[in-house]
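User: My collaborator and I are trying to settle a disagreement about how two of our proteins should look. Neither of us wants to argue from intuition anymore, so we agreed to look at predicted structures for both before our next call. Could you fold the first one, then the second, and keep them clearly separated?

Assistant: That sounds like a sensible way to settle it. I'll keep them separate. The first protein:
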Amino acid sequence: MSGILEINNLNIDFLIGNTRKKIIKNISLHIENEIFAIMGETGCGKSVLAGSVLGLLPSNAIIEGSILYNGKVISKLSEKEYNVLRGKEIGLVPQSSLNALNPLLKIKKQIAIPIKAHKLLKTRTGIHSYSENLLQSLSLKKDVLNMYPFQLSGGMQHRVTAALGLSCKPSLLIFDEPTRGMDMVLRNSYASLIYSIYKKQNIAILLITHDLELAQKLSHRCALMYNGEIIEQGKTEELFKNKRSKYFQSLLEAMPKNMTRRNQR
């Protein structure tokens, strides 16, 4: 089945010396205009999978299989071709917002960089007005544009990082471990922000997370990874209800019950 993103029989090995270490094992999935969550514990390969979509794997990675974006094979693109795709077609919100922001640049300059690179807007006035509207859509005041990252609260930093991911109007936005290290209040607030982005921006979202509760609350469909493989995949509500694998059952038994699944869909 086709979609905005389609991954077919993907295998990824890392060449370490003369040894090939298998990281991703025969993964197939597709993402439509939805929130799709890839769940799994640290080290299961989910961030490597996301990196393969963005062409951000190290040079010792060996990729077999195919990755398609809107029907076009992107797994064989050159770095120059990927530079056109990243940001403009597929956006990324990395897991560490503070590390993702340049401490030496005001927020307005950081938002302007990808906009200029992809020639979304050309005039300073146009970029400034667009940036103001972008921040306001994420419940940030326009004054944030003239601030440095260290002047922002943790929640504001996360929202600014999301703004950077959205700045060039991608069709697919990847959130890599969006709630890692957050307290419960910030976590719930950011979950609401992700859902709001999906509804208002009308884009597909790929959620990479170890947070099963977040995936259950936000996603339409999801996949569970273990040791480089997808061991369960399907509609989120059905997957969490049926719990076919013992591994998934054990994860759910350890999951706190603090978030309520959204019923707006």
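The second protein, kept apart from the first:
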Amino acid sequence: MHHSYIDKYAELDSVIHKADSRLKIIISFVFILFIVSANPTAYLSFVLYGLILLILLAVSRIPFLFIFKKTLVVIPFVVLIAVFIPFMKGQDGIILFRGIVLRSYLSILCMTLLISSTKFTRLLKGLEQLKIPKIFIMIMSFMYRYLFLLVDETQRMQRAKESRSFGKAGRFRIIRTLSNIIGVLFVRSYERAERVYLAMCSRGFNGRIRTME
């Protein structure tokens, strides 16, 4: 099954792609630190940060629409978390809400550009060379590897449900079906995790991530 991997353009031949992964990681996190520490009313700073990211995106030759779609997915969650702030803080809350949304989007845009211009294996290797805890790197690796398996599993279950359904389903029936899918998906994910763990132990996995580079 085909998925739009977030690092599908990581093989491009731009200056940003060729840069050392450790350098890109450090610069990205420093840049994000500047973004999140900016004053909520410093809109000129946000515009400047946005222009810098757009210039880097143009230099990387990664399609803007691809990046836009990836970053847009996260915005509803940010808005959902911050939407109540204006009601608690009044006029200051509106300013704070704008600042949170802008900082969140620019930070997500920066991280998406980093991941899209760096192969995931190189990204993990760079984190390891920067002495990031191995457990954190392993969690990232497993999340990336098995996220798409879970998506496949969910889509198969969804198709199976639709092939056995006739006509329009009521609201409560839809909720019950989704609850069943989530429950079964959780059980299958747990069983898959146990099988993977036993397979790794039987092959002598010692917690170290090895790549071809």
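Some points you might bring to the call about the second protein. The radius of gyration is 21 Å. The mean pLDDT is 81.
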